[in-house]
Write a structure and sequence with these properties.
Blueprint: H1 11-73, H2 79-107, H3 114-132
């Protein structure tokens, strides 16, 4: 669209241009919001996957290693003490994995498109400023 002096255009032409530009702006903001939500969804998925992995690894560790470690420790201390030492070590590993998953989920929440919201607010402020002129 060629740059015309706005004084040479009628009010209806100016409103038509405004309408077209607003429609384009809204479509672009919606695309930005969709892209941002998609990215946050990926991060949330990774966090949830880490939580699941933490549970699975904790279960396997509890099943396979507990027996061997308890038996190994039982040679040096009473069997019940060996079982508690092993359980404590597994709890620490599971806690570390859960904290890693929690931090990934927090990166993705709240699931709102922050960049798109800021962009819309800037657009509204600019439109208001130009309207006051």
């Amino acid at each position: 669209m060629p740059d015309l002096d706005m004084r040479d255009q009628s009010v209806s032409e100016l409103f038509q241009r405004l309408s077209q530009q607003m429609a384009t702006l809204v479509r672009e903001e919606i695309r930005l919001a969709q892209a941002e939500l998609k990215e946050k969804g990926k991060k949330a998925g990774i966090g949830v996957g880490l939580f699941g992995a933490a549970g699975l690894v904790g279960l396997y560790a509890a099943g396979a290693a507990v027996a061997g470690i308890v038996l190994l420790l039982a040679q040096a201390v009473a069997t019940w003490i060996a079982a508690f030492i092993t359980a404590g070590a597994l709890a620490v590993i599971a806690a570390v994995m859960a904290l890693a998953g929690k931090s990934k989920v927090e990166e993705a929440t709240p699931p709102k498109p922050d960049a798109a919201i800021q962009s819309v607010q800037a657009d509204v402020a600019e439109i208001k400023e130009k309207a006051h002129r």
